[in-house]
């Protein structure tokens, strides 16, 4: 009898096997090309491979992490310089060791260049990286590559010394780089890159360091650039600075944007274009520098349209796949409608009874004392104090502008200038960052969409959980909250569904306290009530306390055992639900707030 986990295990094995199969097929194809191509085209093919590896690196820092880096060929120059130096010094290990060392050295330089990315974005970061490329270019012209003045050629790896052999070697390197990138993109690093590109606040709120995400993206991107440069050094054997100019880095960036280089096959396609376009211009008698103009025009089109070539192809494929999925869902609905006996009857009461408040025992899950937030002369929060009992669902309500969102930002660490004391269990949070608070067990969701659409539901849930979870655990929490299947792309679902996935992912993380900031926004009234029914079960089922910030009083009534009301930044009332809602001061505060009635 097969083990219960044999299905997920088989699925994981297939996900692991197919990229290996593609890589092996690519290596076989490379060998056939190395035998069949003429000598000149073999040289061009090596150039395409080196460019593809450099573009693959750009796909990480630019396509996945969303940062502008205009110095990729500078990292390539670092790799080529290290390979040339090790060649002159005859460092043991041969070309393969030198190539790896060049990649590592470039990765270190990438971290140093990436440090400004911790504070800079957009054009400012582009200027910094382009300035670095220009400064390095001037330096390289002065120092030159080791061995270039003496005419000492870089020795190629043993057994691959011929042009055909070296092309086959470069294909093997490309296959290895592709596999590494594939696994990184589908691991925690890859999810953090895509998350930080979409929302830095959302990334920090799930316990992922934004700084680490950015620096790892720069490091991996630069290391791939260094490997590309090391391969180029072995190809030409006497590298010169003219192969690594800032203008070429700029053109490579544009080509990466145009092709959609965060997709591995599109990075390879970009490398082919890097060689193909100038070669065609040469054959047509057009100066090859016009290739930069063509790349620029294609890049402008990609930036203005918001869709690159690779993403356009993917969208067509996914549209067909989503159509098949939608048809399958409609069929399932029709089958369910045809067999009503299999459907559970609806609940008799439209509004469940108010949940009982948990007995006060032990320390509270969250305690806040004297929390004050001031923006200039405005006190957004004024001496706010409250306690959230363990295993409870507390509602935080109040008129618009009462300070509810400010409270959530302050508690979760996004307002470091807030004064007062916040304790999670027995731990004082003090000046801890949002990342540290999340890792200690204080999680939150957002009013705005902070769920990166570049991920699948499964990848996002695992990323947010920050612990090793099984496929069964993921499927269970998604089913519990009525979310789409794990393999669904988040880009293909509506905002309301993404909010449900955000709640499910944070619940699976099993924090001590979960702050839900209007989680039902974008859902219908019926979906509100369904979500409420699920939230009522969360404390006992997953072992956490919830603070619910919500405008829909129907949802608040069905979920929250206790309420705290804010008005003009101060606590207006706090206690059991029925007492608070009957308080004349609370009723007066909501006069005219029709959306709360």
UniProtKB/TrEMBL annotation:
- Alphabetized InterPro entries for the sequence: AAA+_ATPase, ABC_AA/LPS_Transport, ABC_transp_permease, ABC_transporter-like_ATP-bd, BCA_ABC_TP_C, LivM-like, P-loop_NTPase
Instruction: List locations, semicolon-separated.
Output: Cell membrane
- Every copy of the ABC transporter domain together lies at 366-593
**Annotated keywords:** ATP-binding, Cell membrane, Membrane, Nucleotide-binding, Transmembrane, Transmembrane helix, Transport
- Give the GO molecular function terms: ATP binding
- Give the span(s) annotated as Disordered: 334-359
Instruction: Give the top-rank taxon of the lineage listed in the UniProt record for this protein.
Output: Bacteria
Annotated membrane topology: Multi-pass membrane protein
Residue stretches spanning the membrane? 16-34, 40-61, 68-89, 95-118, 125-145, 165-184, 215-238, 250-277
Name any one Pfam family assigned in the record.
Answer: BCA_ABC_TP_C
Name assigned to this protein:
Branched-chain amino acid ABC transporter ATP-binding protein/permease
The species this protein was found in: Agromyces soli
Could you read off the lineage of the organism from its UniProt record?
Bacteria, Bacillati, Actinomycetota, Actinomycetes, Micrococcales
């Amino acid at each position: 009898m097969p083990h219960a986990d044999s299905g997920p295990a088989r699925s994981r094995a297939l996900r692991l096997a197919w990229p290996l199969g593609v890589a092996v097929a690519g290596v076989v194809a490379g060998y056939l090309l190395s035998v069949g191509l003429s000598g000149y085209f073999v040289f061009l093919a090596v150039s395409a491979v080196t460019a593809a590896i450099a573009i693959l690196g750009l796909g990480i820092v630019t396509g996945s992490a969303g940062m502008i880096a205009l110095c990729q060929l500078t990292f390539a120059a670092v790799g080529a310089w290290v390979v040339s130096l090790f060649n002159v010094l005859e460092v043991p290990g041969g070309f393969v060791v030198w190539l790896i060392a060049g990649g590592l050295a470039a990765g270190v330089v990438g971290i140093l260049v990436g440090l400004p990315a911790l504070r800079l974005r957009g054009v400012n970061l582009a200027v910094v990286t382009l300035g670095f490329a220009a400064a390095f270019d001037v330096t390289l012209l002065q120092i030159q590559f080791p061995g270039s003045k003496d005419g000492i050629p870089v020795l190629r790896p043993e057994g691959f010394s011929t042009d055909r052999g070296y092309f086959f070697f470069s294909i093997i390197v490309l296959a290895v780089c592709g596999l590494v990138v594939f696994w990184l993109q589908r691991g925690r690093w890859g999810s953090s890159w895509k998350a930080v590109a979409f929302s830095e606040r959302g990334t920090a709120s799930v316990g992922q360091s934004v700084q680490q995400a950015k620096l790892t993206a720069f490091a991996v991107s630069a290391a791939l650039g260094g490997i590309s440069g090391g391969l180029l050094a072995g190809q030409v054997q006497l590298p010169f600075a003219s192969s690594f100019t800032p203008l070429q880095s700029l053109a490579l960036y544009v080509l990466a944007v145009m092709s959609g280089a965060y997709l591995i096959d599109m990075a390879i396609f970009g490398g082919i274009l890097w060689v193909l376009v100038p070669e065609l211009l040469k054959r047509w008698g057009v100066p090859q520098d016009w290739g930069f103009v063509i790349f620029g025009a294609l890049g402008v089109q990609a930036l203005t349209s918001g869709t690159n070539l690779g993403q356009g192809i993917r969208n067509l494929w996914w549209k067909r796949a989503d159509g098949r999925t939608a048809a399958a869902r409609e069929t399932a609905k029709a089958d369910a409608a045809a067999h009503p006996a299999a459907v559970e009857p609806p609940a008799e009461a439209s509004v469940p009874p108010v949940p009982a408040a948990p007995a006060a025992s032990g320390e509270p899950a969250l305690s806040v004392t004297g929390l004050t937030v001031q923006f200039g002369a405005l006190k957004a929060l004024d001496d706010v104090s409250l306690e959230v009992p363990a295993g409870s669902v507390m509602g935080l309500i109040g008129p618009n502008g009462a300070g509810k969102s400010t409270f959530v930002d302050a508690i979760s660490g996004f307002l470091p200038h807030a004064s007062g004391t916040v304790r999670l269990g027995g731990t004082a949070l003090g000046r801890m960052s949002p990342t540290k608070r999340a890792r200690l067990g204080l999680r939150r969701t957002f009013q705005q969409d902070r769920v990166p659409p570049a991920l699948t539901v499964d990848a996002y849930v695992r990323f947010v959980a920050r612990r090793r979870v099984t496929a069964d655990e993921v499927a269970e929490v998604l089913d519990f909250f009525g979310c789409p299947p794990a393999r669904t792309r988040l880009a293909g679902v509506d905002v309301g569904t993404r909010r449900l996935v955000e709640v499910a992912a944070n619940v699976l993380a099993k924090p001590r306290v979960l702050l839900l900031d209007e989680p039902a926004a974008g859902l219908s009234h019926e979906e509100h009530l369904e979500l409420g029914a699920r939230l009522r079960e969360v404390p006992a089922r997953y072992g956490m306390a919830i603070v619910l910030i919500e405008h829909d009083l129907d949802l608040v009534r069905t979920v929250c055992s206790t309420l705290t009301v804010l008005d003009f930044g101060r606590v207006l009332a706090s206690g059991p639900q029925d007492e608070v809602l009957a308080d004349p001061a609370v009723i007066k505060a909501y006069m005219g707030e029709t959306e709360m009635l």
